TrEMBL record:
<keyword id="KW-0934">Plastid</keyword>
<keyword id="KW-0472">Membrane</keyword>
<feature type="transmembrane region" description="Helical">
    <location>
        <begin position="241"/>
        <end position="260"/>
    </location>
</feature>
<dbReference type="InterPro" id="IPR050186">
    <property type="entry name" value="TPT_transporter"/>
</dbReference>
<feature type="transmembrane region" description="Helical">
    <location>
        <begin position="99"/>
        <end position="118"/>
    </location>
</feature>
<dbReference type="InterPro" id="IPR004853">
    <property type="entry name" value="Sugar_P_trans_dom"/>
</dbReference>
<dbReference type="InterPro" id="IPR004696">
    <property type="entry name" value="Tpt_PEP_transl"/>
</dbReference>
<dbReference type="InterPro" id="IPR037185">
    <property type="entry name" value="EmrE-like"/>
</dbReference>
<dbReference type="GO" id="GO:0031969">
    <property type="term" value="C:chloroplast membrane"/>
</dbReference>
<keyword id="KW-1133">Transmembrane helix</keyword>
<feature type="transmembrane region" description="Helical">
    <location>
        <begin position="162"/>
        <end position="185"/>
    </location>
</feature>
<dbReference type="GO" id="GO:0015120">
    <property type="term" value="F:phosphoglycerate transmembrane transporter activity"/>
</dbReference>
<dbReference type="Pfam" id="PF03151">
    <property type="entry name" value="TPT"/>
</dbReference>
<keyword id="KW-0150">Chloroplast</keyword>
<feature type="transmembrane region" description="Helical">
    <location>
        <begin position="272"/>
        <end position="295"/>
    </location>
</feature>
<protein>
    <recommendedName>
        <fullName>Sugar phosphate transporter domain-containing protein</fullName>
    </recommendedName>
</protein>
<keyword id="KW-0812">Transmembrane</keyword>
Amino acid sequence: MISLNLSASLNPGLTRTRQNPTRFSPLHAAADKPFSCRYPLGLPQIPNLQIRDSPAKRPFLSIIKRSRSVSAAAAAANPDGESLSEEAAAKKEKKAKNLQLGIVFGLWYFQNIVFNIFNKKALNVFPYPWLLASFQLFAGSVWMLILWSFKLYPCPKISKPFIVALLGPALFHTVGHISACVSFSKVAVSFTHVIKSAEPVFSVIFSSFLGDTYPLAVWLSILPIVMGCSLAAVTEVSFNLGGLSGAMISNVGFVLRNIYSKRSLQSFKEIDGLNLYGCISILSLLYLFPVAVFVEGSQWVQGYHKAIASVGKPSTFYVWVLLSGVFYHLYNQSSYQALDEISPLTFSVGNTMKRVVVIVSTVLVFRNPVRPLNALGSAIAIFGTFLYSQATAKKKKIEAGDDKKN
């Protein structure tokens, strides 16, 4: 009796079950399963359930501990935990920027080739460079007005001082553009580009007159340019004095444009290259078209009929003229965008390689005869422009170092 009461006191539910054997007792059913969850379904809570972290019973715990120890060792070896991620992000950003610049350079070269080919095709059947040059500026002006009107590109804040400062560079840009078109109409495209590679010579001469000084390396670099251009001119099959003069005047115009742009537009740095070129195109059109009407306007109608008769289909001639105008603006737009993103040295080297690509492409397309000495002179001149870009870049680095010291 004592033992029965003791059992009842220890487990009253067991007594009730024995009194009513047909009743199912969850407590009795769970008596053989001490680790089963019996809470909160009216069952007593197991107060202290302890599980030993034995590697044999719980192998994943040892794996976690080992991984934590490895992470701690790596963190101790690299105190700055974020340096690796920052370096990876910097490399990724650099790759993206290089890809973007590669696309810009590729477009710049491709657009320049397309312009030179269709510009020459149009001039071969319609030898009126003043009208064609005016149309190219007109196409660029319309392009920029569309971008600004539909807010595809931010419109610059144009003020009276900005327009006044832009009058000089726009005038010299007009001179450089029309002179190049005149040269293209009279000689082979390759010859014009060889002569235009002598632009650094005029840049050094005019800048020296305005007070700039250059080291000996810069002056020596222009010697192969002069020699190469002279050899190419003497051996050029399609040599024409008007074509040579046009290319030389074009060099003068673009050099003066660059010089006066640096001097007069210093206080308008908030206007980026694309908007600056768009404004220059509009002002240049206003400069050029009235003079074009005066110079050759009376011959346009007759020349148009001859061009259509020569081509056969009016649409073909229209496409040539349209492509020359659109791609003239696009290649200049790409060059200004590249100049905003890269150093002047990289741009100069890219511009030199652009002339090589254009010369080779136009020779292949138009099958211009090239003599060995002519090719040698062209190569020497282009190599001279590369040496010039290297020498001027070194000069700028020295000047920048001197400014930091002061």
